[in-house]
Fold this protein.
Amino acid sequence: MTGHSPAARSLTSYGLAAATLPPPSQALDERAWRRLMDEVGHQRLSGLLAWAIGDRCLPTTDEQLAEAVDAHHDACVLAVLLERELLEATARLRHVGLAPVVLKGPAVAHTAYPDPAIRPFADVDLLLPAEQMDTAVAVLTAAGGIRRYPEPRPGYDRRFGKGVSLRMPSGAELDLHRTLAPGYFGFRVDLPHLFATTTTLDLAGCRLRVLGPTERLLHACLHAVLGDREPRLLALRDVAQLVSAGAALPVVHQARAWCIESVVAEAITTSWQILGLRPDAGGDIVAWAHSYRCGRRQRRHLDRYHGPQRSSASLSIGALGAVPGWTGKLAYGLDLAFPRRSVRPPLERWRRGVRSLLAHPRP
Amino acid sequence: MSPAACTRPRGPAVTPPEPPPPEAPPARWQRRTSVLWRHTLGGVVALAPTPADPCLLRGEAGKVWDLLATAGTADELEEAGGHDLGPVLDHLLELGMVEPAP
């Protein structure tokens, strides 16, 4: 069913009321432990590992305990350093009148989990209104940030891009988002709605904007299903965590309004399946997700995000249909077809994109 | 107004002895709001706002940090901790992790 070890799946569901996968009853042997620690590193599960060990629900040898303590310590050091970067970046942006919204790691860690130490993260993500993207990039590059990828054509970031990734002088990665997902589904998100429904989070004495609870779950679903070729365990845990915190059917209504029901249903059913959660737990939204039938059109859009055929080119081409207006589609198509010479992708990447598109023809 | 009311007393002015200053209330301490921190199995990872590296508050330092979830005096810390935690409190002050409570 998945390539994840039973211990990693059990660990990912640790602490959820709906969990059914028992943690190992005795210390893992060396081979199983090494595999688990590889998954802990790759899937960012060190917080859940520390939680389970601290509760004496995961037996370890002394050496294993020391390794787990070190892994969690390193993750927590990174988390506080990134939070300092977040506070500095937010202050800079506010200073010029911008109003960023904190996404993903810090927002979820502090709002959804019983202890933020359970939820590590590796970068900082901020959402900005499209019209503020250029200013935000200018402010942060003036502060020493370096774009990881150049803008394909002037105006692309604020009109069509998912976001801009910056490497800050400290080495931290800071992503400025225009929307919540790459490709087709990123264009389906109602961006003004996101900014109209924010709430706040107090972090180290600073009041930060975060998505509203409904939108936070929708974003977790988008990230879990569309963020990588294969869903990451921590992203699936975020979905389960937010659903278990009391998600209700308004989430489905919002998903329907954005035409992302298929993504939400897949995120919830995949989380429940891989984490081995009780199907009768989680309330109406879980029952809805298990009964949802994905149409062919939605299935084809989803398939573009999965498997080896996924590429930025195929996602970009596949999004053309969701770009609003004919002039918008034309401008988007021109930006993709004729990027600046310095950012022109190798011809083979475009060939792969077209091949992927042909494999999943436009609905 | 009677004349007596506007006359000054003759002779050297006598200043009544000042009452002893009221005993200052003991200082109360709290976690510095701007510290970023996490609980780990090995202690508390904490990062003060001044440019500095995160540090690990182990043992008694982590214990004091936990006790300061609510502001308290050194005496109250001692009472809760079972012995004098003043030196640990001083150390946290030096690190910029603790501040006077309002």
